[in-house]
TrEMBL record, chain B:
<dbReference type="InterPro" id="IPR050250">
    <property type="entry name" value="Macrolide_Exporter_MacB"/>
</dbReference>
<protein>
    <recommendedName>
        <fullName>ABC3 transporter permease C-terminal domain-containing protein</fullName>
    </recommendedName>
</protein>
<keyword id="KW-1133">Transmembrane helix</keyword>
<feature type="transmembrane region" description="Helical">
    <location>
        <begin position="299"/>
        <end position="319"/>
    </location>
</feature>
<dbReference type="GO" id="GO:0022857">
    <property type="term" value="F:transmembrane transporter activity"/>
</dbReference>
<feature type="transmembrane region" description="Helical">
    <location>
        <begin position="386"/>
        <end position="409"/>
    </location>
</feature>
<feature type="transmembrane region" description="Helical">
    <location>
        <begin position="16"/>
        <end position="39"/>
    </location>
</feature>
<feature type="transmembrane region" description="Helical">
    <location>
        <begin position="354"/>
        <end position="374"/>
    </location>
</feature>
<keyword id="KW-1003">Cell membrane</keyword>
<keyword id="KW-0472">Membrane</keyword>
<feature type="domain" description="ABC3 transporter permease C-terminal">
    <location>
        <begin position="306"/>
        <end position="419"/>
    </location>
</feature>
<feature type="transmembrane region" description="Helical">
    <location>
        <begin position="331"/>
        <end position="348"/>
    </location>
</feature>
<dbReference type="InterPro" id="IPR003838">
    <property type="entry name" value="ABC3_permease_C"/>
</dbReference>
<dbReference type="Pfam" id="PF02687">
    <property type="entry name" value="FtsX"/>
</dbReference>
<keyword id="KW-0812">Transmembrane</keyword>
<comment type="similarity">
    <text>Belongs to the ABC-4 integral membrane protein family.</text>
</comment>
<dbReference type="GO" id="GO:0005886">
    <property type="term" value="C:plasma membrane"/>
</dbReference>
């Protein structure tokens, strides 16, 4: 039996706003992802998909529940320890890519090395990834000079730079055409085949069909 | 990839933001350096002005003394006609004439009508012991006032005579004996009334008694004899003292002529007055420049803090704007595992660079501004003289410190920013 990479237990996230009703973004969500598993969480906009991903990535403290990543209780760790765990174990792909505009493609991919003191071999690793994503000829280009698909591939390469065990992907194909979406989904599938775990949130049925397991999230609850 | 690389690339990319920050730092440090340079150049100029004025005063005093010398050649001399047998060595040693000559000599001289002599005052004097006052040593002088000369009529005849029966006392004698005007006293058996007490002169006059000539001749047993003729205001043009001496020697061959201290004293007084005037002028100049410096300091005391505070606030606003602009970037850095300390360091490193790079040109611009608007002559030498390595380092350090302080809160905000807030906004 494969090791559990991510375990979400009874996680709830409530946003309390003054003079407004409490927003229950997540309500008692539980599931786990094993190594080599590609899990897709599908749901409409506002169903809590991004919140679930942020909670799973150690970026948003849940109101209730427990999140374990590679055996560590994420929110029992100090912020520094959580940041180190993210740097070593987790890669994140965003729908809006969040590439840094003043860094070129190569530098954007190398960016995660900032979290590590030993940066030897960083350039080689980045070039390998760029070659894998067919972006090596574009390594000196800036994000503004890339197509949308290329930007998402750079974002994916950056997420994979630190050889994470868990890849969190937030609508990674949301802004892509069918061809580029296929490239990204193939890459994620390849990552799981290599032993990694993927948690992808999407509202796209086509993207959802690529996962090993599909969860549906509606109004913060798994249905 | 390291923080330095990231900071450098961001600065290169966000040139305008960084240049605006540099401009603020350069202006603030420039203003600070300019006002300090202005004060320094004012101080140096003050030293120069005072040194110049001192040198000029010394030159002027030298010229003034020469002028006085020349003028006094025209003003005339005070001469003393003494018996030829009088030893000058003894006279200078004791201050007293011991030899006598006939009183008629003064008349002979007056009759001769020398154009160069205005007043003639015969006198007899002797150092005596005053038997009525415990044999106290005094100088007794008998005088009869001016003998009219056939020479040029003086504008105002001198009235230096003493009436018979009256006596004039020197300051020290009067003070020590408690004499005052109207007192009666006895001298060598004769009764006198004190008609006047002289003010202090600081000379032998202070222990002298003056009576009329005839009485003095009688008391001293020298009837019809005198031992000095004082010739006052002898008018000479150029160096004619020798001529006067020659004239008097021709008329009174049994006499000798010496110049008394009129010129020396007058010249010394003139020099002292000129020196005092120069001292006052220097003090006034110093006070005037000190007053200007105080005004400058007042101006600096509000301008510098305002400019520095304004620049600090401006840099703080720029830093805050930079943080706002880079919220997405900060969120990504947090998401990939960069710690909050490193994120804070990214912004503080930029602040340090801003302070160091902005302050260096600011210092030299301030130095140039201070030099051009200051009072020193603009030259490379003056600039080099005003350049202070210590101040340069201090300005660099202060600028860096202010930039770090200005960027501290924005950096803190950046490091504490919740990445989830930004990433959820997508």
């Amino acid at each position: 039996m494969s090791a559990v990479m991510l375990k979400i237990s009874q996680v709830s996230k409530h946003y309390r706003r003054e003079s407004r009703n409490t927003v229950r973004a997540l309500e008692g969500v539980s599931f786990e992802i094993s190594a080599g598993e590609f899990m897709v969480v599908q749901g409409p906009s506002g169903s809590g998909k991004t919140t679930l991903l942020l909670v799973a990535g150690g970026l948003l403290v849940p109101s209730l529940g427990r999140v374990e990543c590679a055996g560590s209780d994420l929110y029992a760790l100090t912020p520094g320890e959580r940041a180190r765990l993210r740097a070593n174990r987790i890669g994140i792909v965003f729908q809006q890519f969040h590439l840094i505009s003043y860094l070129n493609v190569l530098e954007n991919v190398i960016l995660p090395s900032l979290a590590h003191s030993d940066t030897s071999g960083a350039g080689k690793r980045a070039r390998e990834l760029l070659e894998q994503f067919n972006l090596l000829p574009r390594c000196d280009h800036y994000p503004s000079e890339l197509s949308t698909g290329e930007r998402q591939r750079v974002s994916l390469a950056r997420a994979l730079f630190n050889r994470p065990n868990l890849l969190l992907a937030d609508e990674p194909t949301g802004n892509l055409d069918r061809e580029n979406a296929r490239i990204v989904l193939d890459c994620l599938a390849g990552f799981t085949r290599a032993g990694g775990s993927v948690l992808m949130v999407t509202h796209s049925r086509e993207a959802a069909s690529c996962g090993d397991c599909l969860l549906v999230l509606e109004e913060g609850k798994l249905v | 990839m390291n923080l330095w690389h990231l900071v450098r690339r961001e600065i290169t990319y966000q040139k305008l933001n960084f240049i605006l920050g540099l401009f603020s730092v350069a202006v603030a440090s420039g203003v600070l350096v300019a006002v300090l340079t202005l004060l320094e150049s004012h101080d140096r100029r003050t030293q120069q002005v005072l040194a110049d004025k001192q040198a000029r005063t010394e030159q002027e005093m030298a010229l003034l003394e020469d002028d006085y010398r020349k003028i006094m050649l025209k003003l005339g001399f005070n001469l003393l006609v003494l018996p030829a047998s009088q030893s000058l060595e003894q006279y200078y040693a004791t201050g007293c004439v011991t030899e006598y000559m006939p009183e008629k000599y003064v008349h002979t001289l007056a009759e001769a009508g020398l154009m160069t002599i205005q007043h003639l005052l015969p006198s007899i004097e002797q150092k005596i012991e005053w038997p009525e006052r415990s044999n106290r040593q005094i100088f007794l002088v008998g005088t009869r006032g001016e003998v009219p000369s056939r020479g040029p009529a003086p504008k105002k005849p001198m009235q230096l005579s003493v009436a018979p029966g009256e006596i004039i006392a020197g300051y020290e004698l009067a003070r020590s004996l408690g004499l005052s005007e109207g007192d009666r006293l006895k001298l060598l058996g004769e009764q006198f009334t004190v008609s006047e007490v002289h003010a202090e002169r600081g000379t032998r006059d202070d222990i002298t008694l003056w009576i009329d000539l005839e009485t003095a001749q009688k008391l001293l047993g020298q009837p019809g004899r005198i031992n000095a003729i004082l010739a006052l205001k002898c008018l000479c043009e150029g160096n004619q003292l020798a001529q006067i001496r020659s004239d008097i020697a021709r008329i009174l061959p049994e006499t000798q002529v010496i110049e008394v201290d009129s010129k020396v004293v007058t010249r010394a007084e003139a020099r002292e007055r000129a020196a005092a005037a120069a001292k006052i002028a220097l003090a006034e100049e110093l006070a005037s420049r000190a007053s200007i410096r105080i005004e400058m300091e007042k101006f600096v005391s509000w301008l510098s803090p305002v400019v520095i505070l304004g620049a600090t606030l401006w840099i703080g606003l720029l830093a805050f704007g930079n943080v706002r602009q880079r919220r997405g970037e900060i969120a990504v850095l947090r998401a990939i595992g960069v710690g909050s300390t490193n994120i804070m360091l990214i912004f503080l490193t930029k602040s340090v660079l801003l302070g160091l790079i902005g302050a260096a040109p600011g210092y030299f611009l301030g130095l140039a501004a201070g030099l051009f608007s200051g009072e020193l002559e603009v030259s490379f030498g003056a600039a080099a003289g005003l350049f202070s390595p210590a101040l340069f380092l201090i300005v660099l350090f202060i600028s860096m410190l202010l930039c770090v302080l200005a960027g501290w809160i924005p950096a803190l905000l950046a490091s504490n920013q919740d990445p989830a807030d930004v990433l959820r906004e997508e």
